[in-house]
């Protein structure tokens, strides 16, 4: 089972610093969207023999007044649904704010384990001030300093008690996960695989909010396809849709044997693709890169050889990865 740990909370309470400690390195991947620079952080960690994916939700909030607090609330809802453990981070310097109270209300109504972390507690005076946060009513409350690392171990010890250990796969049938950014053609690829012979589809039992599993048994090939393309209709904020997609993606990577990373030929290999690729490689999964929409490229300005060389340059030193050029619009005839 996939272990997802989500760090939620207001901005500037130290979520990214704690994230970096949990994954054991500085791993800030930046991307420019509408002139705004933001971190999108998700990586793998290990503690007390438990492996997990940690997601710092802070980088998925759009920095504008009109959607800022609403985006945080929506991300808390997603974390409650999808995460194994939620780390709710607060700041002793500001005390309990109205937004902290709202987040706490949501988390108390959920059924997931919540670790309340009061950050920046690095002296005796702040230790006394931090006692205020017991009023939020969480059983597991910790005082720490994410900069110095003091108190971090206790949080991770408690987190590890809830996480699942490594399990053997219940089936010998290989699992392929179709992953990638939104709108690169993941669902269309699966439809191209399955064609019109829907009787060969075998659904795997699971809840509706799990990534969908489809069994492909055709032409002597038998495997499951894990589709991460689904999005909840009620999530309207673009950044939160992406956050939801990320959690779906890392769960699929954990479960899969081989990952098919789809990219858009018109945009190339972007920073988010590279961050997803890093998770696949750290988990020792097989990987193939599918360059979709190749039919939109002109041969005069773009050749497959040059495009592949550019991709592998960005991926260096992990260049021993198959790269296939496809067009799901043409029913993936080149696969």
Question: What topology emerges from the helices and strands here?
Answer:
Elements: E1 4-9, H1 15-23, E2 30-33, E3 36-39, E4 41-47, E5 50-56, H2 68-82, E6 85-91, H3 98-109, E7 113-119, H4 124-130, E8 140-143, H5 152-162, E9 175-180, H6 186-194, E10 212-218, E11 221-227, H7 238-255, E12 258-264, H8 271-282, E13 286-292, H9 304-315, E14 323-325
Parallel strand pairs: 1-5, 1-6, 6-7, 7-8, 9-11, 9-12, 12-13, 13-14
Antiparallel strand pairs: 2-3, 4-5, 10-11
Helix pairs in contact: 2-3, 2-7
Report on the architecture of this protein.
With 335 residues, the protein is of the alpha/beta class. It folds into 2 domains: 4-162, Rossmann fold (3-Layer(aba) Sandwich); 175-330, Rossmann fold, CATH 3.40.50. The protein has 9 helices and 14 strands. The protein has a 6-stranded mixed β-sheet with strand order 4-5-1-6-7-8, with helices on both faces. The longest helix is centred in the C-terminal third of the chain and has 18 residues, at 238-255. It is elongated and about 65 Å long. The model is unreliable at 26-40, 196-210 and 230-237 (pLDDT under 50).
CATH topology of the largest domain: Rossmann fold
SS-derived structural category: alpha/beta
Give me the Rg, rounded: 21 Å
What is the number of beta strands?
Answer: 14
**What is the class of the largest domain in the CATH system?**
Alpha Beta
In angstroms, what separates the terminal alpha carbons? 30 Å
Q: Supply the CATH superfamily name of the largest domain.
A: P-loop containing nucleotide triphosphate hydrolases
Total number of helices: 9
Total domain units: 2
The string of secondary-structure elements, in order, is: EHEEEEHEHEHEHEHEEHEHEHE
- Name given to the CATH architecture of the largest domain: 3-Layer(aba) Sandwich
Strand order of the largest sheet: 4-5-1-6-7-8
Shape: elongated
Q: What percent of the residues sit in helical stretches (DSSP H or I)?
A: 25-40%
Beta content? 15-25%
